Amino acid sequence: MVSLKAMLRPLITIFSAAFVLLGNEFIPPALRSLFSIVVNYFFTPQFTLIIEENVGLSTNQIYAAATTYLRTKISYSSKLKRIKVSKTNRQEELSIDIVVGEVVMDHFENIELKWKLNEEKEEKKKAKVNKPRVYFTLAFDKRYEKDVLETYLPYVITRFEEIQKEEKEKMRTIKLYSRDYSRGGPGGDWASINLEHPATFEKLAMDPKQKRSLIADLDRFVKRKELYKKVGKVWKRGYLLYGPPGTGKSSLIAAIANYLNFNIYDLNLSGGRYSDADLRRTLLSTSNRSILVIEDIDCGAELEDREKNNNSDTIKFTLSGLLNIIDGLWSSCGDERIIVFTTNHKDKLDPALLRPGRMDVHIPMLYCTMDGFKLLASNYLNIEGDHQLYRQIEGLLENVKVTPAEIAEELLKSDDLDDSLRGLVVFLEEKKKT
Ligand SMILES: Nc1ncnc2c1ncn2[C@@H]1O[C@H](COP(=O)(O)OP(=O)(O)OP(=O)(O)O)[C@@H](O)[C@H]1O
């Protein structure tokens, strides 16, 4: 919508030209001063903010917010000559975006704001990827400078957060990111796929008390933005999952991601092709509302050994060094972050990792109990209540260390419920002998 002020501007320009032509001596002083007030009102100097895409290595939050916010300002009736349009097979609606060179007008209270996306092709001699610099300009009357900085931009960021939440709710697509070594060297960016893991807390066989307490802990964590801010703590939470292979550590991470609708960043340290600087860059490019997973950290000892090996110029950190990097980065730019470590051998861990405040919650993932088995039987065989073989299975589970993964495997071996359970009994009896 064009404001009254914008409509009257050409008229004032014509009057100004007429005044200049007539000369000051023909115009009464009172009319002159009235006219100068009017001119000032209509032609206050414009002020322009430059909003770059990145701040050093980090993404500029205002830029990201503007990109999303302006989508809501592009209406089909606007005067834009070009817009970007896209749709993935998971989206129900088209998504539209502003393109370089186009101007989007916005109105906030009585301020008229002019957004423009600009591109500056810059020779980046050192960089491997020659990506043009892209930035927004935001122009408005100079006298609104304070309002724009203190009220309008925070409003754009708040709207951005709301829109992001709404969009995530709509799409419910959770991404699983792994580091992509093919892009930009070993510290490279993340490559993602959609996480289609069906794990949920309901389907997970684990100690019911532990499960309830974890869910309550997650609920508390996501609600506590203000509290973390008030006490001056970084809004992050660390979980250590430990237990033998096949007890559901990966499934639990997927269940947490599905429950919170957080993306997962899987940082595989065992590849070992990164330096301190690479890691910093990689970690900086993870987003808020995400889970950083570092699996099998008992290989930390190996990392420490490699640190001592001066022949290697790529490995320059220890696990506790890595945690310091994470703490440092997240304290400056991270919000609503979860970090999950998994290990098969808690006893082998560097004590620095276990000290209070580092991993907030330690979660044991244990061999299968009768309760866990009943849940698996209900998931896999739809058995609700009791079965004649349950007493025998219970007796065996008390004496045999078997993982939920092994039980799940047995339960899948036949379509017939009784056959499956009989097969499981044989399997447990065999295991008991060994
Ligand atoms: N506690 C559990 N509840 C339900 N299913 C489970 C559980 N543990 C394992 N499973 C089943 O076994 C499969 C393998 O488990 P998962 O990969 O989560 O174990 P893990 O502890 O992460 O193993 P690893 O340490 O080898 O990575 C899962 O896909 C799931 O089908």
Percent of sequence in beta strands: 15-25%
Number of domains: 4
- The name of the CATH architecture of the largest domain is 3-Layer(aba) Sandwich
**Strand neighbour order, sheet with most strands:** 10-9-12-13-14-11-15
CATH superfamily descriptor of the largest domain: P-loop containing nucleotide triphosphate hydrolases
Based on CA inertia axes, which overall geometry fits?
Answer: elongated
What oligomeric state do the depicted chains represent? single chain
Helix content: 40-55%
* pLDDT averaged over residues: 82
Cofactor: Mg(2+)
Family: Belongs to the AAA ATPase family. BCS1 subfamily.
Protein name: AAA+ ATPase domain-containing protein
Pfam family, one: AAA_lid_At3g28540
Structure in words:
The protein has 434 residues and is of the alpha/beta class. The protein has 4 domains: 1-43, no CATH class; 50-169, no CATH class; 175-364, Rossmann fold (3-Layer(aba) Sandwich); 370-433, no CATH class. Helices cover 44% and strands 18% of the residues. It has helices spanning 4-22, 29-42, 61-71, 145-171, 208-223, 225-231, 249-260, 276-284, 300-308, 319-333, 351-354, 370-381, 390-399, 404-411, 417-433, and strands at 46-52, 54-55, 58-59, 84-86, 95-97, 103-108, 111-120, 133-141, 175-179, 190-194, 236-242, 263-266, 290-294, 337-343, 361-364. The strands form 4 sheets. It has a 7-stranded mixed beta sheet, with helices on one face. It has a 4-stranded antiparallel beta sheet with strand order 1-8-7-6. The chain is elongated, with a radius of gyration of 30 Å. It starts with a helix and ends with a helix. Bound molecules: adenosine-5'-triphosphate (ATP). Adenosine-5'-triphosphate is lined by residues 204-206, 245-251, 344, 365, 404-405, 408. Keywords: ATP-binding, Hydrolase, Magnesium, Nucleotide-binding.
